[in-house]
């Protein structure tokens, strides 16, 4: 394992901001830590970087305990949210900064800077002033600077946080490609699930200093570990229910569940795609309370006579109007019995 956290714990006063976290990152793996504000994501990175001491537990790099190893000797690169470029240096000066710290010979450094700027899509930008760059360009310079000393582990804290949506979406694809090509091992944190899912081989969801779930983007998306993860991912149809056989009793009536689901009192996730709308006389009667255009589909918010609202995903053409009364039934394949 390139990186292992072993029961890593950080306390501020009484409160454990990291609470006995175990995490392994293999070489060449891209891991994204995802979680709400205050869940401990940045603290996790700072611990690995050697900027935050542990109350207990261990950080190992290549199997070696990093206790007492200062930040600059850990061989990890860290790129922060507000990319902190030096405004008085030009682009090349910023990129070379990472190298100068490692006392590279001058000619070699210039060649490496040229190579890095090409890599991040800014060929020939070496003499430009940092202040004259767009947000996305500054982000690329910060990335080149972090990659310059060839860190064995690259850590990114909200790497695309400040940028507008379309630029973020483009950069995330570029980053994924770049890391794949370079074989870089990456530990990134973000609160944006789209970004994490697009970038990562593995997603780690944090809650209150603990890991709520770890898995591939597909695993986490298909089978959120619990109601917290499901809600954090933006799923709204989360209800308690009692599972007996292949159905559950819920506030929305009887809901079918997949074969082999855990039995007894549980929490259910109903994906919006599994909420099917039909004539008012069939299934659970609901009134359309709102519609939200989502680009590829319409999210239809349904109010049953009793019980919480439901969200359905409808094709653009089939979406009912606000005020319509529809009958709802459920597709067992889109229902997950949560842990
Ligand atoms: N030096 C400190 N002293 C006291 N509390 C701290 C300190 N640093 C962080 N915290 C607290 O620890 C908790 C976790 O902080 P952290 O920055 O790791 O969260 P985060 O998940 O990265 O949040 P965000 O997404 O908002 O950056 C927060 O509640 C924060 O207020």
Automatic annotation (TrEMBL):
Q: Which PANTHER family match?
A: SPERMIDINE/PUTRESCINE IMPORT ATP-BINDING PROTEIN POTA (PTHR42781), SPERMIDINE_PUTRESCINE IMPORT ATP-BINDING PROTEIN POTA (PTHR42781:SF4)
Query: Could you tell me the keywords of this UniProt record?
Result: ATP-binding, Nucleotide-binding, Transport
Q: Which SUPFAM superfamilies does UniProt cross-reference here? A: MOP-like (SSF50331), P-loop containing nucleoside triphosphate hydrolases (SSF52540)
Does the keyword Secreted belong to this entry? no
The name this protein carries in UniProt is: ABC-type quaternary amine transporter
Q: Name one GO molecular function term.
A: ABC-type quaternary ammonium compound transporting activity
Which species is this UniProt entry from?
Streptomyces actuosus
In short, the EC number is 7.6.2.9
ABC transporter domain sequence ranges? 3-233
**InterPro entries of this UniProt entry?**
AAA+_ATPase, ABC_SmlMolc_Importer, ABC_transporter-like_ATP-bd, ABC_transporter-like_CS, Mo/tungstate-bd_C_term_dom, P-loop_NTPase, Transp-assoc_OB_typ2
So where does this one cross the membrane?
A: none
Query: How would you classify this enzyme at the top EC level?
Result: translocase
* Gene Ontology cellular-component annotations: ATP-binding cassette (ABC) transporter complex
